[in-house]
């Protein structure tokens, strides 16, 4: 089992749809499954800053609420400090991973990974697709991926 509590940051593009949902769902799953003592900090941010200060997209909030998960966040852009503050930065898609790797200061602490690398259900796509221009189905599908990936992360990292 990990000795020190770990910090996890979730990253997408705008920090209003996918990553605040991932932050809320991961926190919920970690708490309900009894592992909050293994966590130091959970947060989320975007690679872009267009929505800074905004609350999550109402479709993300509605999807979380419908599934019994509380969500509260103000969008922000990733900073260089985040690469020292978090043990893991879990990105929603490959473009987010690539952008983060370009910004990542040399020798920084954070492991930058695609969140989907932790999936348990091999039938689920690894990429949490950008749902911004789609319908509410996209948000529910993102939610299901994020629950599965959160359980995988617990199993492979928190309980390893
Ligand atoms: P997110 O979704 O990256 O999941 O927060 C998006 C939100 C806003 C935009 C793109 C993606 N946008 O272009 O404004």
UniProtKB/TrEMBL annotation:
Q: Pfam families annotated for this entry?
A: LMWPc
**Main localization category:** cytoplasm
Q: Which GO terms describe its molecular function?
A: acid phosphatase activity; non-membrane spanning protein tyrosine phosphatase activity
Q: Which UniProt keywords apply?
A: Cytoplasm, Hydrolase, Protein phosphatase
Of the GO CC terms on this record, one is:
cytoplasm
Subcellular location as annotated:
Cytoplasm
SUPFAM superfamilies in alphabetical order: Phosphotyrosine protein phosphatases I
Renumbered to this chain, the Basic and acidic residues biased-composition regions fall at 51-60
Which reaction is catalysed here?
A: a phosphate monoester + H2O = an alcohol + phosphate; O-phospho-L-tyrosyl-[protein] + H2O = L-tyrosyl-[protein] + phosphate
Tell me which residues make up the Phosphotyrosine protein phosphatase I domain.
6-156
- Answer yes or no on keyword Cytoplasm: yes
Q: Where is this region: Disordered?
A: 47-66
Name the residues annotated as catalytic in the UniProt entry.
12, 18, 130
Please state which protein family the record places this protein in: Belongs to the low molecular weight phosphotyrosine protein phosphatase family.
Please report the name of this protein according to its UniProt entry.
Answer: Phosphotyrosine protein phosphatase I domain-containing protein
């Amino acid at each position: 089992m990990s000795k020190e509590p770990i910090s996890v940051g979730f990253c997408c593009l705008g920090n209003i749809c996918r990553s605040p949902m991932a932050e809320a769902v991961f926190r919920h799953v970690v708490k309900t499954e009894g592992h909050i003592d293994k966590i130091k900090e959970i947060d989320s941010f975007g690679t872009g800053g267009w929505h800074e200060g905004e609350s999550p997209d109402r479709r993300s909030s509605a999807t979380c609420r419908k599934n019994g998960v509380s969500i509260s966040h103000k969008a922000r852009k990733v900073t260089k400090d985040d690469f020292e503050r978090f043990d893991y930065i879990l990105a929603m898609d490959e473009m987010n991973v690539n952008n983060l790797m370009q910004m990542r200061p040399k020798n920084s602490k954070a492991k930058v990974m695609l969140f989907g690398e932790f999936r348990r259900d091999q039938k689920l796509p690894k990429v949490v697709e950008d749902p911004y221009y789609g319908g509410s189905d996209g948000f529910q599908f993102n939610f299901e991926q994020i629950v599965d990936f959160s359980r995988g992360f617990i199993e492979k990292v928190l309980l390893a």
